[in-house]
Amino acid sequence: MATITLNPGKDRPVQQRHPWIFSGAIKGVQGYVGRGDAVDVCGADGEWLARGTWSSGSQIRVRLFTWDADEALDETLLRRRLERAIATRAWLGYAGESAACRLVYAESDGLPGLIVDRYGPYLAVQLLTQGMAARAETISRLLADLLQPRGIYERSDPDMREKESLPPGEGVLWGEPPPEQIRTEQPGGLAFLADLRAGQKTGAYLDQAHNRLRVAAYCAGQNVLDCFCYTGGFSIAAARDGAASVIAADTSAPALAMLGANADANGVAGIEPVEADVFKLLRQYRHENRQFDVIILDPPKFAHANNQIERATRGYKDINLIAMQLLRPGGVLATFSCSGLVSADLFQKVVFGAALDAHRDVQVIERLTQSPDHPVLLTFPEGEYLKGLICRVL
Ligand code: SAH
């Protein structure tokens, strides 16, 4: 196995168990290391620190798996980590035959580069580093053995694969291909259909499962506008909990079609789907002097790199400002950002700026984060990306 030596002064994050080593921290490599190979990491003084997988070409050159010199980076380690991740989700209560949840959340579960989402009897897998891509066959075999799924399907995020100089990864890894619609049970007794092959992400936004229930608690008897609704997660929770009316807006026609099927699956009626660009729709509603009691803003990731943060904050401010203008006094704004690069602090500042410009007093009622099947490891705060504020707009 090759050994990586760090530059002086770069030991500390590794000793504190941060799992990433950037290319700039590396002084040299002793021995041959190929794409995805296991490597040992030593400090500038030669002391052994940790072991991980190598990613040639990527900015994050090594992902660390163990800080125990006696622990090999082999199938036994992968099996133990998978067992631990699966046990955590069972402990959290994601247990039923048709449960949907994130079973493995990469670094947070000690498995950098690996995401496994369960949709009832099918698994959707993302292999996002050279290290995980090289271990695809082992991972599939272990998952098949531990979970006996009907099928394992790869849906790796193409942008992240590209950063690792990996070709797009999609297709059946094991067992049967998933059907077009899998019916899943999600927290709060809601049923959602997921399309693992053609849906966004791996089929659903599992990270919002708990937040939908929190937001729905403010929707009984209210006129609700669900912006960036995808397949209706928030809309259906709101309708089920007694919303007087729900308008659900998204640019994706297939997502809105699935929203109709999801409404049927939950026995709720009356959600009005609107195929529209939310930036334009909000302006149109303002022009028409429309008012709402509850507005949900759950936009896609606006910041994919550091140089996009400023543009992203302008986007967040724009939609939050208009949403505040559309709320009746005492209305509720449930606003989210899933851009990991926009901190919770910065996001709150953006919402603050919107409130100032809208001339409204705004109180934060609840702070939300990603659902508990996306845990955050304390040594890896980067694992936290979703933040939400439920605000009362006076
Ligand atoms: N709220 C959803 C998840 C939203 S994901 C849930 O709970 O499941 C973000 C959504 O925004 C995607 O469905 C995407 O199609 C949609 N989208 C992206 N840009 C948009 C725009 N400008 N206007 C409307 N929808 C947009």
UniProtKB/TrEMBL annotation:
The keyword Transferase belongs to this UniProt entry's keyword annotation: yes
Pfam family, one: Methyltrans_SAM
Keyword annotations of the record: Cytoplasm, Methyltransferase, RNA-binding, rRNA processing, S-adenosyl-L-methionine, Transferase
GO cellular component: cytoplasm
Source taxon at top rank: Bacteria
Keyword presence, RNA-binding: yes
One annotated GO biological process: rRNA processing
Family: Belongs to the methyltransferase superfamily. RlmI family.
Name of protein: 23S rRNA methyltransferase
Source organism of the structure: Kouleothrix aurantiaca
Lineage: Bacteria, Bacillati, Chloroflexota, Chloroflexia, Chloroflexales
